[in-house]
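Support case: adenosine-5'-diphosphate complex. Customer-provided input:
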Amino acid sequence: MTRIYTLVNQKGGVGKTTTAINLAAYLAQLGQSVLVVDLDPQANATSSLGVDKRTVQAGTYEALISGEVLHSSILFNERLKLSLLPSSPSLAGAEVELVDELGREFRLKTALESLDHKYDYILIDCPPSLGLLTVNGLVAARNGVLVPVQCEYLALEGLGQLTQTIGRVQSLLFPDLKVRGVILTMYDARTTLAHDVVKEVSNHFPGLVFKSIVPRSIRLAEAPSYGLPISAYAPASVGAAAYEALAKELLKGDGVK
Ligand SMILES: Nc1ncnc2c1ncn2[C@@H]1O[C@H](COP(=O)(O)OP(=O)(O)O)[C@@H](O)[C@H]1O
Ligand SMILES: [Mg+2]
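Agent response - structure generated as follows:
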């Protein structure tokens, strides 16, 4: 069965999108068949993979509205061997349009079920909010959520609210929802603050923090403007090494390799 993980954290700028596309790229490079689902109306994952959101004919929006994924809406990148269900500006309207619909929280889960067995991994990139789109992402997270946390002052701030939302989804919608892991991002080894944050987050999520920590790296920030993941833009960079290590750690933990 396809492993489905959702990248979630209602804080913006913590590395959800960067992690979604670069982790996906390395999983694909390591031989997995991978689909990235862009669940953010801002479409950063879509553009980071070189797709202009204005040209998107069908994508996540249509999947949410219809409850199925149109085969033609999946864009396959030959070079990266990576599939994308793109976002488009119309996705911004989905929260409002779905609000009165029956089973509104299950739309993405149902849609992705139609793809079962087509992929080894599906990674869902959430918007920076805890609204209906993110709830759809949580309900669809069959194998758990991946929480990127930026190594900065007050890193844990807001995670209480996220934990609460996860708890509510567990009790009302998806009892088996779990946190698969916490990914530390934008780590700057030169600062003592970063060391403290690693300790603090590890204490807060015992056993759940990935050993592969993503350093702050200018190459990671540059890559999206070329429409490329770090594996294609700067494969020899420290950021690339970190995401490759993260992909291997995830595969190992999943018992795949
Ligand atoms: N490890 C990193 N080093 C340097 N810049 C990063 C790193 N991770 C992300 N960024 C940059 O920080 C910004 C926010 O990251 P992003 O992945 O878009 O966060 P989110 O999806 O959580 O809003 C982006 O401009 C991205 O390129
Ligand atoms: Mg994002």
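DSSP finds eleven helices and seven strands in the chain.

Case will auto-close in a few days if no follow-up is received.
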